[in-house]
Amino acid sequence: DKGEYRHYMLKEIYEQPQVIRNVLEGRIHHGHVLEQVFGSDASAVFDQVKAVQIVACGTSYNAGVVARYWIEKLVGIPCMVEVASEFRYRKTVCMPGTLFITLSQSGETADTLSALREAKEQDYVAFLSICNVAGSSLVRESDLAIMTNAGPEIGVASTKAFTSQLVVLMLTTLVLGRRYGLEGEADFVAQLEQLAGLTEQVLTLDSQIQKMAEHFVDKHHALFLGRGTIYPVAVEGALKLKEISYIHAEAYPAGELKHGPLALVDEDMPVVAVAPNNSLLEKLQANLEEVRARGGKLFLFADSKAQVKPGDDLELITLPDVPTVMAPIIYSIPLQLLAYYVAVLKGTDVDQPRNLAKSVTVE
Ligand code: F6R
């Protein structure tokens, strides 16, 4: 039931504060992530992990890319991420001590399931499924599983499933990190506990984002930029926009601009930049000035730390300050809303975009 909401997608976007609370419920205790929530023998498995291989499709893959940044930074072990349709068909090499993680909302995605089955022929430490559907094929065929507890997701474009995956991936990062000397677990847990409240604050930007969406209705293309952990957030924002508004959107790590895509920038190419305060902010700001110097219009999501010259070529949405590590979770939300409102203005079928199915159980 959509309740007061016009579409399931909007309802699911708005459920995210509660979903984040649900994900954390029973998984943390006194500033500590509980390991047994991954499975009764999870601790013994995690003790052996020296590297991580993540496999997933679409939005779930984008969550996996965020996790790679987290795991390599906070745990300090190698983390590889690959789309399942590639992984399953190529000869892969398993490093000793690698934990294999599948990420999936449905747990029935054919390519992800086949990748898991292929990987079982190799010497992985264990197979962990991070999934939103208990009893799904992926969960049944994995040694360890943790549910994302997002509740049923009806809109074809994934929203709350994505944020719930990110929260679980952060829990995973913390349980691995404690084996490699990660300090301040209680601080990270406290930051996770702040997320639901921050998400509520970000949702109050709704009408500003709705207004921003008007600029996209007559556009055929859009560029999304981010750096570091925010790069996969930009990729996910672009995916949302193309799926439901049918606008061709592409994401680039902002540092790649001058290696090609800058040639595309003109007044018909809106550039969405996602710029929370982090060590890359200054570099990103320089990238954004390059865009403006070429006549591109900028749509910027940033916090109070961003320093950009005001102008007619800039639309700015200011988010609350958020802990740097958690920024990918928070900054995904305004991009979901942007895609949603562009699609509504264009009059597309938001919950059932053309040519797409909710669960891709065929190859
Ligand atoms: C995009 C979207 C898809 C799915 C992908 C994987 O909004 O929903 O890209 O993320 O088909 O699906 P799951 O997560 O069910 O394996």
TrEMBL record:
Keywords annotated in UniProt: Aminotransferase, Cytoplasm, Glutamine amidotransferase, Repeat, Transferase
EC class (word): transferase
Cellular component, GO annotation: cytosol
Catalytic-site annotation from UniProt: K358 (for fru-6p isomerization activity)
Ranges where the SIS domain occurs: 42-182, 212-353
GO terms under biological process: amino sugar biosynthetic process; carbohydrate metabolic process; fructose 6-phosphate metabolic process; protein N-linked glycosylation; UDP-N-acetylglucosamine metabolic process
Subcellular location(s) of the protein: Cytoplasm
MF-aspect GO terms: carbohydrate derivative binding; glutamine-fructose-6-phosphate transaminase (isomerizing) activity
Keyword Transport set for record: no
Coiled-coil positions: none
Catalytic activity: D-fructose 6-phosphate + L-glutamine = D-glucosamine 6-phosphate + L-glutamate
EC number(s) from the headed UniProt entry: 2.6.1.16
Subunit structure: Homodimer.
Protein function: Catalyzes the first step in hexosamine metabolism, converting fructose-6P into glucosamine-6P using glutamine as a nitrogen source.
Name this polypeptide is given: Glutamine--fructose-6-phosphate aminotransferase [isomerizing]
Native source organism of the sequence: Amphritea opalescens
Shown chain mapped onto the complete sequence: 247 to 609 of 609
